C-alpha cells in the first residue's frame, strides 16, 4: 500500500501548514497542534517523521477497554510475584546464543534435539533444551547478542524494519506537593519551537496520599518525547533537572505558587541504556504489522522469541509483553513434550 511508505509526521505537518496558511491561524493554535504531536510521539516512542502513515495505528482495533490503572508500589510488585522461587542470575549479560539450525529431518524418527548454548560476557555458559529471547528490540538492532547460525532473513528483516525509539522521563521528589492533587496529569505547551515540543510536555502526578500509595512521597514525572528526547539524552542530568524546574516555575509561580527545589531526582535515559537502546517498538515507514509476526516466529526447536515487539495486536505495552511470554511458555512446553514423546530430548 502506498500509505505504508509515507511518513505520518510529514503528512500531518504538511496538512496543518496548508490549513494554517488558508485560515490565517495564530501561533497559539500551531503550538497546541505541536503539543498534540508530542503526545503522539509519546504514544509511539519516536519522532512522527519515521512512523508509517498507513500502519502506525494498525493495533488500535485490538485495544482493551477500561481505565488505565497505576499499581501502588510500582510494576515491580507484579514482576517480583511472578519471579518468586525462580533462579535468576544477575550480572550475566548474554553475548552469544548457539542454537540448532532448523532441519528437514525433524520427523518422529529424526535426530536427537541438540539444545542451545547461551554464553555470557563473564564467560559463563548455560545449556538448555531451548532459549527464550526477550531482550528489547533495540538490543537486537544493536547486535549486542550474536546468534549462531545467524537468524533467518525474514526475522533479520523484521528487526531492521520495525522502529524502536525513545521516550524519556525526569523523576522529581519534592518535600510536599505544590500542584493540584485532584488531577492525574497536566501539560505544558512550548511556544514557537517545533523541535522542543516534546520537552517536559506532560507531567504525571505520582504523589503519595492517604488513599493512594503510588510512590514514597511527593513525586512528579515529566515526559520527554520525539526530537526533544534525542536531545535530552545528550544533555547532562543536572541540566535537564534545572530545565524541568524552569518549566514548573513558569507554570505555577505566575499563579502565586512557590515551587521548591526537589530533594531528589532521577533521569530515565532509555536510548543509551545498554540493555534497552530505546523504549518500545513502533511501525516505521515501510514496515507492517507482519513484521511483528515475523519477530515472534520460533527458529527451529530451540530458539523462541517474546516481548512487546512480538505482539502484533498489543505492541508497545506491558500487557503485550506479558501475553507474549504466556504464548511462548505454552509453545515451548508443547514442543518439548512432543520431542520428549518422540525420544529426541537428551535425558
UniProtKB/TrEMBL annotation:
Leader sequence segment: none
Amine oxidase domain mapped to chain residues: 28-332
One protein family per Pfam: Amino_oxidase
UniProt GO MF annotations: oxidoreductase activity
Family annotation (InterPro entries): Amino_oxidase (IPR002937), FAD/NAD-bd_sf (IPR036188), Flavin_monoamine_oxidase (IPR050281)
Entries under Gene3D superfamilies matching the protein: 3.90.660.10, FAD/NAD(P)-binding domain (3.50.50.60)
PANTHER family linked: FLAVIN MONOAMINE OXIDASE, LYSINE-SPECIFIC HISTONE DEMETHYLASE 1 HOMOLOG 2
Family in the record: Belongs to the flavin monoamine oxidase family.
Protein name: Amine oxidase domain-containing protein
Taxon lineage: Eukaryota, Viridiplantae, Chlorophyta, Mamiellophyceae, Mamiellales
Amino acid at each position: 500500500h502506498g500509505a505504508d511508505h509515507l511518513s505520518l509526521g510529514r503528512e500531518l505537518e504538511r496538512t496543518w501548514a496548508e490549513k494554517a496558511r488558508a485560515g490565517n491561524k495564530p501561533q497559539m493554535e500551531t503550538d497546541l497542534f505541536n503539543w498534540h504531536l508530542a503526545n503522539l510521539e509519546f504514544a509511539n516512542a519516536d519522532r512522527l517523521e519515521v512512523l508509517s502513515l498507513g500502519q502506525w495505528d494498525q493495533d488500535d482495533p485490538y485495544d482493551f477497554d477500561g481505565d488505565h490503572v497505576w499499581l501502588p508500589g510500582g510494576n515491580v510488585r507484579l514482576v517480583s510475584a511472578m519471579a518468586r522461587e525462580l533462579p535468576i542470575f544477575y550480572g550475566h549479560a548474554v553475548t552469544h546464543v548457539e542454537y540448532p539450525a532448523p532441519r528437514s529431518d525433524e520427523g518422529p524418527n529424526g535426530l536427537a534435539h541438540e539444545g542451545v548454548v547461551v554464553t555470557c560476557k563473564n564467560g559463563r555458559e548455560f545449556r538448555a533444551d531451548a532459549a527464550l529471547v526477550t531482550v528489547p528490540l533495540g538490543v537486537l538492532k544493536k547486535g549486542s547478542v550474536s546468534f549462531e547460525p545467524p537468524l533467518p532473513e525474514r526475522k533479520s528483516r523484521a528487526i531492521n524494519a520495525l522502529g524502536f525509539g525513545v521516550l524519556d522521563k525526569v523523576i522529581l521528589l519534592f518535600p510536599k506537593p505544590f500542584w493540584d492533587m485532584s488531577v492525574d496529569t497536566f501539560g505544558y505547551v512550548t511556544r514557537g519551537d517545533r523541535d522542543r515540543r516534546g520537552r517536559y510536555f506532560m507531567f504525571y502526578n505520582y504523589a503519595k496520599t492517604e488513599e493512594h500509595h503510588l510512590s514514597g512521597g511527593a513525586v512528579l514525572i515529566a515526559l520527554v518525547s520525539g526530537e526533544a528526547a534525542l536531545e535530552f539524552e545528550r544533555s547532562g542530568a543536572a541540566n535537564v533537572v534545572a530545565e524541568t524546574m524552569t518549566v514548573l516555575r513558569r507554570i505555577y509561580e505566575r499563579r502565586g505558587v512557590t515551587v521548591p527545589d526537589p530533594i531528589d531526582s532521577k533521569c530515565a535515559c532509555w536510548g543509551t541504556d545498554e540493555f534497552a537502546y530505546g523504549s518500545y517498538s513502533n511501525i516505521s515507514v515501510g514496515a507492517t504489522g507482519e513484521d511483528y509476526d515475523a519477530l515472534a516466529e520460533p527458529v527451529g526447536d530451540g530458539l523462541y522469541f517474546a516481548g512487546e515487539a512480538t505482539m502484533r495486536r498489543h505492541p508497545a505495552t506491558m500487557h503485550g509483553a506479558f501475553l507474549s511470554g504466556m504464548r511462548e511458555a505454552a509453545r515451548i512446553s508443547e514442543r518439548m513434550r512432543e520431542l520428549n514423546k518422540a525420544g529426541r530430548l537428551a535425558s
